[in-house]
Amino acid sequence: MGTAAVPGIELRELECFLVLSEELHFGRTGERLYVSQSRVSQLLRALESRIGARLVDRTSRRVCLTPLGEEFRTSLRPAYEALHATVESARTAARSIEGRLTIGFQGTADDRIMRSIDAFHARHPGCATEIIEIPLCDPFGALRSGAVDVAVALLPVAEPDLSLGPVFAAQQQTLALSVRHPLAARAGLTAEDLASVPLIAPDAPAPAYWREAHAPTATPGGRPIPAGPSVSTLQEGLTLAAAGRGGMLLCRPTADYHGRRDLAFVPVTGLPDSVLGLVHHPARETARIRAFHTAVTETIDADEAGNARSAGSPWIATEKCGR
């Protein structure tokens, strides 16, 4: 059964009516609301017009509520106070560095991510963190659904409704191949060599541009690259690569992390490096998200400073990336 539409009521009108019902004086109501007496009258008339009846009787000597006004005040006050409490609770949550922060990651929560989380905990011990793996085939869905607050995701990120924050150091690509594959024994490959290898690709709903970046359909020279199977997870892709169904592009540190006897990881030159970045939904930004953003930025800055100091050293620690 249909219901009649009620014209949108301004919260200021409701607030004015409630204060007037307490003061029963237009001048004092205006003082409490920091508006003129004429503005109080205007807000009341607008509310009465929306409702379709008088709520207040005013003479030259007194102001009182009509029976309908009394009934309306009784019903309105608890609803208005509940709304006000809800708004204040949301504002407090937005400012607070407490509660829970849910962090999504793709493939591997490597040491850079974990050091960022450790730095966040050290500064904000009252905020718990939950770490959730994001499917390789859906890098942004968990952010949009609210399943995670932030995500450490593989670039590129070209989503108009999402915001990209700090990015981690770029890592060279390798190609994961079955040890039985003819190219597995090579010391290195070029991007043009990919024309002879079906590439295992992330499946939908990952955006087409993102899938193309991680499983290109052509070499930089324009040669077509055969399409291999589409997968939902990193482990699924590694298993298919080990079975000889194709090759899968991974950064070198992640290849080391997921090393197995039935796979070879061959470095590839001529491709863009693999890069991770911190992504969040700006409409859901909170103080917790901003604080984690700071922790990640400081971790990245510390790593870059350490790498600069180690530039002349014969040993430089290798970082892991998420894929």
TrEMBL record:
It comes from the Bacteria. The keyword Transmembrane does not apply. Residues 9-66 form the HTH lysR-type domain. Transmembrane segments: none annotated. GO terms for cellular component: protein-DNA complex. GO terms for molecular function: DNA binding; DNA-binding transcription factor activity. InterPro entries: LysR_HTH_N, LysR_subst-bd, WH-like_DNA-bd_sf, WH_DNA-bd_sf. Pfam families: HTH_1, LysR_substrate. CDD domains: PBP2_LTTR_aromatics_like. Keywords: DNA-binding, Transcription, Transcription regulation. PANTHER family: HCA OPERON TRANSCRIPTIONAL ACTIVATOR HCAR, TRANSCRIPTIONAL DUAL REGULATOR HCAR-RELATED. Belongs to the LysR transcriptional regulatory family. This is Transcriptional regulator.
